[in-house]
Design a protein that fits this description.
Elements lengths: L4 H6 L2 E6 L4 E6 L1 H13 L3 H57 L3 H10 L14 H49 L9 H5 L2 H8 L9 H9 L1 H21 L11 H4 L6 E3 H7 L23 E4 L17 H5 L4 E4 L5 H7 L11 E3 L1 H14 L7 H7 L2 E4 L14 E4 L54 H7 L6 E2 L1
Helix pairs in contact: 3-4, 4-5, 5-13
Length: 479
């Protein structure tokens, strides 16, 4: 039933956003408004109605002031009671700390009640009686023992960090400096979790420093540790090559990894950024996605027991089965401090997201044939010679617009951005041709090139600067 708006405004009301009609509605107490409307109807003269409205407005205004005052008084009293309870709580906590200190738990009680100020042990009685302490003590002692263990673990962690800084970091630095440039080396975290080092870091007496003889013996094993680590990582990458379409059923050796045509891509980067990048050996093994900085899954299992099974992801964690978290097996609880101190190094998560790029492999072979280079050309040689390829491709521009020009380094040329999976074709320009002779508005001619019209040219180090200068007015994109 609709009531006069003047009657509704007399009583308390509020606007309500109706989710069904998406309109604001006025909500009020219907019985009160109905009674006022009935009373208003019984008033006859207009003057009496105006007087009645003024009286009712004044009545309800005074009533709401009274309600507000009552609520404020209740809230104020509640705040006063909370202040009194807090003072009582603080006084009782101080008394519990004194009692705990007498029993030898002073430091533990100080930290426990600082982190748990609202613990139920603190009653609201003004003082802590002996009877209350007798009831509290049996439950409080186990908590103090846990706090003491936390303090002990913190001290152990500090000793382990000191050992890492004093002994392990210099040994790891010496390993890196002793190796040739671009050599694959284990991270400091990989080195710390080797059997030789985790024993010295985590099992020796923590109230004593390591002896130089122990450190020298462990340091002497670092080259062998690095060699075994390197062999394991290379074998994992070779397995990726064996699973490719190109090398399926063939014998794969480490020599294949060094070829410039051995190109990998990261499916994780492909999902995030739209392209998987172009990765060659050994850079593939140090790709950032192989060493995520997420917290790993810690599995505790003593050395004499078999390795725990891999994590069992539920149906709602399907994505994690394809992109699992790093898993680290620890033999002792103290080894957690090693992981905490060196987690910045990144945890090895495996190569489950690295795949051999068959399309880029074919593109690279085409480029090598076009340049007249051997198919056995290594990635290191390509890096040294740095060939540039000019690509005039119809895929780079709208046919209705003028042709565009793109220049890529050798890594990107076989797999340009935006040409995911395209079967590219490359041909070398005649030596007397100059790039300035190409008109951007001239449509590309097929000239026997199938599907993907692309022209390529090797730019050696001697002519590179001259060609770059020639291209300065062509608005080229260098990538």
């Amino acid at each position: 039933m609709d009531y006069d708006e003047k009657i509704i405004r007399i009583t308390p009301s509020y606007l309500f956003a109706n989710p069904r009609s998406l309109q604001a509605e006025t909500r009020y107490h219907t019985k009160t408004v109905a009674a006022l409307a009935d009373e208003h109807e019984r008033v006859q003269s207009p003057k009496a109605k105006r007087t009645w409205l003024e009286e009712k407005k004044r009545f309800w205004r005074d009533r709401m002031k009274h309600v507000t005052a009552c609520n404020d008084a209740l809230n104020l009293e509640g705040r006063k009671q909370e202040v009194r309870r807090q003072k009582i709580r603080e006084r009782v906590v101080e008394r519990i700390k004194e009692k705990s200190t007498e029993l030898g738990w002073g430091r533990e009680a100080e930290r426990y009640f600082k982190e748990n100020p609202m613990i139920n042990f603190v009653h609201l009685n003004p003082t802590l009686t002996n009877d209350e302490w007798t009831k509290i003590e049996p439950d409080l002692i186990p908590l103090m023992e846990k706090e003491r263990e936390l303090f002990r673990q913190q001290e152990i962690g500090e000793h382990i960090r000191q050992r890492i800084n004093k002994w392990l970091k210099p040994a790891h630095t010496a390993l890196i400096l002793s190796q040739p440039p671009n050599e694959l080396n284990p991270s400091i975290l990989d080195l710390s979790l080797s059997d030789e080092w985790r024993t010295h870091l985590c099992t020796e007496a923590f109230n004593e420093d390591l002896t130089e003889s122990l450190v020298e013996a462990a340091s002497a094993q670092i080259p062998e540790i690095a060699k075994a680590w390197r062999k394991d990582r290379i074998e994992q990458l070779l397995e990726v090559v064996r699973n490719s379409k190109t090398y399926s059923g063939q014998e794969v050796t480490e020599d294949i990894l060094h070829l410039s045509s051995t190109i990998f891509r990261c499916t994780k980067c492909e999902d995030y950024y739209g392209h998987g990048g172009v990765h060659t050996f050994p850079h593939t093994l140090v790709h950032a996605c192989n060493h995520p900085h997420d917290l790993p899954i810690i599995q505790f299992a003593p050395r004499h027991l078999p390795a725990p099974p891999p994590p069992n992801y539920g149906p709602y964690e399907a994505d994690r089965r394809f992109d699992p978290d790093p898993v680290i097996r620890l033999y002792r609880k103290e080894e957690m401090h090693v992981v905490a101190a060196l987690k910045y190094a990144g945890m090895w998560s495996g190569l489950n997201h690295i795949v051999f790029d068959d399309a880029a492999h074919e593109h690279m072979l085409t480029m090598l044939d076009t340049l007249g280079w051997s198919r056995e050309t290594s990635a290191a040689e390509m890096e040294e010679r740095q060939p540039y390829v000019e690509c005039l491709c119809e895929c780079y521009h709208n046919p209705a617009e003028r042709a565009s020009r793109k220049i890529f380094r050798w890594k990107k040329a076989p797999h340009p951005p935006g040409l995911k999976g395209h079967p590219g074709k490359i041909r070398v320009l005649a030596s007397e041709e100059r790039w300035l002779h190409y008109e951007k508005s001239v449509p590309l001619e097929e000239e026997g090139v199938e599907d993907h019209q692309t022209r390529g040219r090797n730019v050696d180090s001697d002519s590179g600067s001259e060609i770059i200068e020639d291209l300065s007015d062509l608005d080229s994109d260098f990538e």
